[in-house]
Specification:
The chain is mainly alpha-helical. It has one domain. Helix content is 57%, strand content 3%. The chain has 9 helices and 2 strands, in the order ααααααββααα. It has a two-stranded antiparallel ribbon with strand order 1-2. The longest helix has 21 residues. The radius of gyration is 17 Å and the shape is globular. The N and C termini lie far apart (49 Å).
Amino acid sequence: KKPLNSIPYENTVDQSTFQLSSYDAEKFVVTFRTQRSKYFPFLYISSDTCAQQILQERPFLWLYIMAVSSTSTTQQMDLGNQIRHTIARKMLIQNERNIELLLGLLTYIGWVNYQVQNKPSLSVSMQLAMSLVFELGLNKPPPKEPQGTFYFNHNACPRTSTSIFRTMEERRAVLGCFIFSSIVSAFLQKIDALRWTSYMEECLQTLAEKQESPMDEILVQRATL
């Protein structure tokens, strides 16, 4: 039996294998913001952001938030399968490169880090996340002019691989990638951690001086350990 007021998933989730009510989706967003965010300080979800807004604007990231916040093993397994399939489709087939994918991958890495059965996927996911950091140019100062290489976002609209502006979200993402890559590198001893750069130091100082949430302070502390 399908739940009432089910959220449409468009092309992000296979509706034949998973359904989630609007009520549960909103509850999961609140759970993520109030209970899980300390484990994912690179991802800032403001108090006035609802599940429907995240789904419409960033469906891939929405998928991760639902997986991390669900307490159902069955739901988590279904969402985990959808996440892996979506990563393969977006990055390998559709050649997407954007901040949403990076934030989603980092959330997934933080999630599977606490799940013993998913340890083998840590190395691959971490390497994909680091490749996004390099391709988006987040570990170095933004260029003075837009770059000539184009990718496609989740709406199939072309965009340049790097922007001439850097957002707080992008600063959080590169620091989050550095933290997780250091943890995964030390744990698995198979890949090198993301190399710290002088520009990442600038990102750290900017977040320390212009905090938008308590999570920024946590992120700064973890990046300096």
